[in-house]
Amino acid sequence: MNSQLPGLSNITLRPVGADDYDLLVEVYGSTRAEELALVPWTTEQQQAFVRSQFAAQQDHYAKKYPTASHDIILSDNRPVGRLYVARLDQEIRIIDITLLPAERNAGIGGCLIKQLLDEANGSGKITRIYVEEFNPSLRLFERLGFSRTEQHGIHLLMQCNPSQHHTP
Fold first, then answer.
1. Structure pTM?
2. Most-buried pick from 19, 99, 115, 149 (CB within 10 A)?
3. Per residue in 40-54, pLDDT tens?
4. Domain span at residue 124?
5. Phi and psi of 75, rounded to 5°?
């Protein structure tokens, strides 16, 4: 069942299904493309590496956030990304939000994050996400009211308190 999102009428979410493996690997792989361009591997070696790293990431998410929602982001019923969210007692944790490169910078991620901030605000929860310090989406989170709270290596824990988010 798809759920319509206010703000961008053509953006919907649906739960990840059994047929989504190839899409999810493609979405994950798009986040590793720049670094893979630097290694002298064959296409087959790169694909094997991406599948292995994707499996490790999925395993980590399943262990750390066993009750999280895993959704496919759709634009005009076309799959364009993934959104994983853990709704915890005191916070909404955005585990992962990734769009395919051709879909980035079109307002989709901002719309989804604003929906989560509204949900958190309505329940008095904080919203948190880890972002790599060189990730271009860092600026989006800051515009939406997130602030840096901790650093773990290259990962920044960002947080937005209830009633603190902004509409750019």
1. 0.90
2. 99
3. 999 999 999 999 999
4. 3-160
5. -120, 115
